[in-house]
Amino acid sequence: MGFLGRIFTWWNGATIGTALFTRRHGREVGRDDMGNVYFEHRKDPRRRWVIYSGSNDSSRTPPQWQGWLRGQIDGVPSAADSLPPRRAFEKPGQPNLSGTGETFRPAGSLSRGGKRAAATGDYQAWTPD
């Protein structure tokens, strides 16, 4: 991303203002597997933030780091921190897909043709008297 892109965009990485604030007041405390960088304020460690590598989407933040950002845990998460074992029915996390080609479109939505399934016999439409 070019210099002007960094000044005028907030949705990819950090703006120039955030980068300057981070350089002046922040202390890097860690990184996650997706390349996101986590910071805390040098004078007030309760102030915490993340600079995303790519789109600014909190669904791209792992659960351990979510807890740290919100002050639920004091210690910085590490690779040794483990989550409870994944259950058979759990799916891996996904980023927020709204506004992309992968957005969920249920049957009957306008983007899928707007055709709803016919009502079954257990449904009776309301009509005013």
Highlighted features:
single chain; 129 residues; alpha+beta; 3-stranded antiparallel sheet; 3 strands; 18% helix; elongated
- The dominant shape is elongated
Class based on secondary structure composition and strand pairing = alpha+beta
The SSE string, one letter per element, is HHEEEH
Low-confidence stretches: none
The amount of beta strand, in percent, is 5-15%
Distance between the termini: 63 Å
Give the oligomer, counting copies of the same chain as homo and different chains as hetero.
Answer: single chain
* Residues in helices, as a percent range: 10-25%
Quick check: average pLDDT?
81
Itemize the secondary structure elements and their pairings.
Elements: H1 3-8, H2 16-25, E1 26-31, E2 37-41, E3 48-51, H3 63-69
